[in-house]
Predict the structure of Alpha/beta hydrolase.
Amino acid sequence: MLSPLDPQARKVLDLGREAHEPPFETGTPEQARRAYNNGFRGLQGEREPVASVREQTIAGPGGPLNLRVYRGQGAAAADAPSLLYLHGGGWVIGNLDSHDEICRWYANLAPCVVVSPDYRLAPEHKFPAAVEDCRAVLAFMQDMPGGLGIDASRIAVAGDSAGGNLAAVLALLARDDKCPLTAQLLFYPNTDADQTADSYRRFGEGFGLTAATMAWFRDHYIRSAADINDWRVSPLKADSLAGAAPAFVAIAGHDILADEGDAYARRLEMDGVPIVAKRWPGQIHGFVSMGRHGPASRQAVEAAVAAWREFDPAFDRV
């Protein structure tokens, strides 16, 4: 039986209807970015103070790559655990500001150093540009830990929606590169670009992210339909998930991505990956970025950090 909508989710949906904004898929990517940038600040809560925030630029595979580095209150000055956070936005929208709130929560709750990259967006930069950028940032964190004050052996990766997709892919790439991560922390991740799961039917309209919008995002990201079967687009299609980093998967009950999130969590468990899966039955897609309207947003980050601490015993020795 479907749970009722959480008051936080209902409020956000009501605000969306009252705004009368056209769906992203009726305009251009640039129009979608402007609309998103004008709207996300009204959903997020206050910016939580951290010990420090700084901007940094590194050489990326497609040119200079901008990073934002957060050091949480109480994080060690050297050899701190770290988190590579990859923002959501359907690979088309989103930026360093749109997920600033979540990065600050992670930095203080762990406490740790959070690195958030402004990876290249589609359709100007189609797959695999975003994957290559995120992989380059992870390599920078592993190769130059001293400059960030982090322990190269204690890096985790996290992301939401399309960022959750990129984080899941990065966890598999790190496994293959023999550079294991301590955790992958995934909020309502995209895991199957086929977009045929039943939750696309159940929640395809009226719950925020629609099936039409999700198809628009995907079609801007991929180069051709053949990319749908590439596991770096659809990690659920990987031959094996065995050996990937321990995983936390958060699933929103009223979300078109709910079924593929469930399916990915089951695959991880079947392939022997330590997994903590947690469901927010009354929530909608993107709820972790809606902290102004209810406590579930921060509670989800708290749950992810709790799982990360379980996966990494070194937290208990700090």
